[in-house]
Amino acid sequence: MKKILLYLLPLAILMAFTQCSKDETIEDPQPGPEGPEQVLIGEEFAVGSGLKVEFYALQELYAGYNSVYFTIKDSITGEAVEADEFMMHPMMEMMSGMNHSCPMEVPVYNSETKQYEGAITFVMSSMMGTWTVSVHLNNLGTAEFEPEVMDPAEAKIYSFPSMVDSSKSYFVSLIQPADPKVGENEFEILINYKASMMEWPAVEDFSVFIEPEMPDMGHGSPNNVDPTNTANGHYDGVVNFTMTGWWKVNLTILNAEGDTINNDRSFNITF
Fold it and tell me: Which residue among 51, 52, 84, 212 is least packed, with the fewest CB closer than 10 Å?
């Protein structure tokens, strides 16, 4: 009996030590930087740079404003790194043979998430041709993506010629609300001017007025706040939805001189 006890005692000590080590291991890891859930759009090597590029977004890409994220990894170690130089270039090759770019916000490196964060406003879906997003790194290599850009069920972008000068074209993109609810919602849009096929600068000196309506019910809503420019063509306000269903948010846009340049467009928001 003594021999059995002498054998079991070290075994019990070993099991206790092992359990303690496991518990410590479970408690040790700390959560990384919090951020929105992302969808992998694609991954490509930047040939000649020794780096791999991972392309993410918050959802599948669509015609309109898309937040985009890029992780650069050492192709040997797989570790996320910051590139010495990062450039992004979206381009559409249309079926007609014409090429054009679109509005974009240059990705900036976030040292906490170890990602480049920016935005691309696709002005049309892939139904019209092929989109290419090129990422140039360190003047050494380029990773090229051919993402599929869909048309959302409810349009997130519209264009219009100015009522004052029809030679000028503008694009308005709906950013918020992304997840509409009953009550007050952030209302955010982006306005860009098409200066050329390759230049789409943000517009920062317009006045925007909104009027939500519920066509099926024949009423609008109170407590809305007209969006005003914050920076880089972004206009922020508040839209109030008093019930669920189909809403139209009508927009009236004035230029810097106070002339109405558009008053017949709206965004459909159904929830």
Answer: 84
Contact 175, 188 (CB under 8 A): yes
Tokens standing for residue 150: 């869909």
Q: Which domains does the chain have, with CATH numbers?
A: 39-145 (2.60.40), 157-270 (2.60.40.10)
Three-state DSSP state, 82: coil
Distances (CA, A) of 216 to 20, 187, 213, 221: 64, 22, 9, 14
Work out the end-to-end distance of the chain between its first and last CA atoms, rounded to an integer number of angstroms.
Answer: 74
List the 115-122 sheet strands across, edge first.
Answer: 39-46, 51-57, 64-74, 115-122, 104-110
Query: What band does 34 get if pLDDT is binned at 50, 70 and 90?
Result: low
